[in-house]
Request: fold
Amino acid sequence: MTSMDDSYDLNLAAAALRSNSTDLRLLLKALSQELADTLGDRLRVQRGGGRFKKSDVISSLQINLANNQFEAVMEGSDLRCTIGRFSGGIRIRNEAVDVNVWIVKLLEALQAEAAHSDGARQALENLVIGGTT
Reply:
């Protein structure tokens, strides 16, 4: 497959992404690296470490796409994922979801954005079919 289309199974893509990043911290790192250029300030990355020493380890990601806010926070060895829905700049819903559901919903939002953004399309392709980072 050389390009994304509407028939591409995002559940399969999410499973592949998840299996290629068995360590949840590596998954967050891969997502942040791939989406940084495309999303700019719509991606917020929180790194571990103290006030004077920052770590390369990512402790949380926050991604804003359309009217959704995707948040993934490392809590020990677990990843807590939520999807917030906004309307008129006000959060109207916040739902805790499984990491696999979170990835699928994130890929769906990226796919919608890819319809009108070459950068989002390239990032989505890289994430699901293994492009270069």
